[in-house]
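Section 5.1 Outputs to date
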Amino acid sequence: MAYTGIGPDALLLLSRNKFEDSKEFYEAHKAQIKDLVLTPMAEIARALAGDFRALDSGILLEPTRITSRIRRDTRFTKEKHLYRDNVWMCFMRPKAEHPVLQPLLWFEVQPGEHHWSAGIAVWDQTPAYLRYLRERISSAPEEFLAAADCAIEAGGLLQAEAYKKDRAPDAPEHLKPYFNAKNFCFMRKSEDMALLESEAIIDELRDLYAGLRPMYRWLLAAMEDFRMRNA
């Protein structure tokens, strides 16, 4: 199926849906949201499915299972908007089988902030796993840094949320951003929303994810080794 594109009408509809923030508006425009937003997102997922299967046969690729819902779950959040204006897909193994430690690849469209982003992330991991990652990097830093260089060369810039206290005061400076990170990602972020209108976005994502493959494989091997050690 050819990619139909995510155009200005789709972005405006998402923004207006959040602004109106009503079930009545959403239900009246639900079919339009599906046609203009959710269907093109599914088309992107299908276009990239072969690349992801070659990377990891366990990655979940069914669009309805990997695409965010438009209706928010507000039960445990301070922000009480019923509807979001952003939409994303997470390419990862099923959470039920791999609840915490797996690497996560994503693609997100954010009309409210006028950008789209994609990348690979290590989010919300346990302190024990982060300690293990530091040890694994220390044992073979060249292997990890080679994967990081591939991600950066493909346009995935490092973004890291650091601990307040230095966790590795004696580490080499070029490794400190990783050793002191409780969350980190390699992210490509762009304000070129026109790319979303054509298959150019698929080409852009394919090139980025190709550059992220070594980091995904490094993180996947780390996850599997950690689990074996702690089984």
